[in-house]
Design goal:
By secondary structure, this protein is of the alpha/beta class. A 7-stranded mixed beta sheet has the order 2-1-3-4-5-11-10, sandwiched between helices. The protein has a 3-stranded parallel beta sheet with strand order 7-6-8, sandwiched between helices. The protein is globular, with a radius of gyration of 26 Å. It starts with a helix and ends with a helix.
Length: about 350
């Protein structure tokens, strides 16, 4: 009798336990387990991508999802290689890709193929075509407007009359059109444009060649300013200004707050640059990527559309103008560049003292 009673208790106990209830595979569980995130950068020509964007994004993802694995790739300016890289990542089982396209339109077939395989794409800094899920960047039209406005004011302050040269970015970069639109909104009707180029690959060498061609055609003495859409192009223009004998303080714009550009600001051979606080942009990209990979709903500060999809959630950050007078309170204060980096060359040490950068 006691044996039967014991068996009954065991049977009842087992029945009471029953099969284990499966744990829901929700966002928190996915983050705890981790997943693969591809990070696709466009080139090594512009220093920011490898020096700032990659480490900022990597560290931000690590904070949000310690078990997530970042797979970093750089297309080195080759759009065909980038399409191949995205196809490879899709085949490797990544959940999300943070993508800065070399060719925003050319990447679309690979973006759409990734979407069909349930890989989520966060378009980073440049708006890719295709079925992307989110976008983070800056207000690029406003960037162009700030550049154009600075050039108008600098040319006016110089008192010179003549033509300006415009060095825009490549047509394959969707940001280039927005920079250009903003710049023209500020410049048109206020300055005379003598020559304008869409510089392939953001090439500094090509920008130098274009500036030389424009000066030959317009006459060096007739050039009163140069709009350069980024600091690489400004570097090419600055070299041409130096070699042509044009006044070294000829108004010249830029963007990205590259170290060479900051040092040109200090020497008076570049008028301004645009500082884009990369860390907030990178943090936005990391948050969007982790949320998408975990299956959380995402929201942005605004919505954007590309040619194939509407109402894409977007996180947009405002850029900042940097001039010689504001270096200390912008890129130095934020730790974007250190005092040692900026003031390293011997010829800049007295300038740093003068500007209070110590």
């Amino acid at each position: 009798m006691r044996v039967f009673l014991a068996l009954a208790i065991i049977v009842v106990g087992v029945a009471a336990c029953g099969p284990e209830t499966p744990v829901p595979d929700g966002p928190a569980a996915k983050v705890r387990r981790g997943f693969k995130i591809g990070l696709m950068l466009p080139d090594k020509t512009t220093p920011r991508w490898e020096k700032f964007d990659r480490p900022y994004i990597t560290s931000s993802v690590a904070q949000l999802c310690p078990n997530c694995q970042i797979i970093p790739l750089n297309a080195e300016g080759d759009p065909v290689a980038q399409r191949r890289q995205l196809d490879q990542l899709t085949a490797q089982g990544v959940k999300v890709v943070i993508l800065t396209p070399v060719d925003a339109r050319g990447i679309q077939p690979s973006v759409d193929q990734a979407a069909r395989r349930a890989v989520k794409i966060v378009s980073y800094d440049r708006l890719a075509q295709g079925a992307i899920e989110a976008y983070t960047s800056f207000d690029n039209v406003d960037v162009g407007r700030l550049q154009g406005q600075a050039l108008v004011e600098a040319v006016k302050a110089s008192g010179r009359k003549g033509d300006i040269i415009m060095l825009n970015g490549p047509t394959t970069d969707p940001n280039s059109d927005e920079f250009k639109a903003g710049a023209h909104a500020a410049i048109d009707g206020r300055l005379r444009i003598g020559a304008e180029y869409d510089t392939p690959g953001w090439s500094q060498d090509e920008a130098e060649r274009e500036t030389e061609m424009a000066m030959d055609r317009l006459g060096t003495d007739n050039v009163v300013g140069i709009y350069a859409a980024n600091d690489g192009l400004a570097g090419g223009a600055a070299a041409s200004i130096r070699d042509s004998g044009l006044a070294p303080n000829t108004p010249l714009t830029g963007m990205d707050a590259d170290l060479d550009a900051i040092q040109r600001l200090m020497l008076g051979t570049q008028t301004m640059t645009i500082y884009k606080p990369i860390q907030p942009e990178a943090q936005n990209a990391a948050q969007l990527a982790v949320d998408l990979g975990a299956g959380r709903p995402i929201q942005g500060t605004s919505m954007v559309s590309n040619d194939t999809k509407e109402d894409i959630p977007a996180e947009i950050t405002r850029a900042i103008v940097v001039t010689r007078a504001t270096i200390k309170d912008t890129v130095i204060k934020d730790g974007f560049w250190t005092v040692n980096e900026v003031c390293g060359p011997p010829n800049l040490k007295p300038v740093c003292q003068q500007l209070g950068i110590t």
